Amino acid sequence: MKLPPLVQGFVLHFGEMGSRWGLNRTLGQMYALLYVSPRPLNADDITAKLGISRSNVSMGLRELQAWRLVRLEHHPGDRREYFSAPQDVWHIFSTLAEERQRREIEPTLSMLREALLETPGSAEEAHAQARMREMYELMDQLTTWFNEMNRLPPDTLARLIRMGSRVAKLLEAKDRLRASAGRVRRRGRRDAEET
Known about the structure:
single chain; 195 residues; mainly alpha; Arc Repressor Mutant, subunit A; 2 domains; three-stranded antiparallel β-sheet; elongated
């Protein structure tokens, strides 16, 4: 690799993380390089900086485009294609999550829906189907939640995330207020009936 030490450390780490996220190591390194690059890079730039084959770079760029993680640019007077990563970190995270949902979650939900339509042929299948229903309901609920969160503006989403467990405390306080209001209404009705 022909990179400054700080950039090389980042690129190597993303290569390792990419393999844990279901991408190959080279793809993770390419993305990390594009992410920290101050300017768009062409395939030759990436090949030279990472020391990987041109064919590997070409395949990786196609895969990154399929994931919607890079932008393709053309420069006047230059026939080469240049690539850059989106600047907005929220956009990158959202795109990654959407692609993972499309590639992994949706096929699983589809398979589970089909399995839940089957009539179990035995007690063992009925048990398995009940477990599948639990999994389906949780995955469906999380998918709905993700889609709702993904529609929020990034600054609203960031504020919500920073709230952390305070959101749960807020919901608990709301429940206590509702319970208290219900007791007051019931007491008011009893008092009215007594008079």
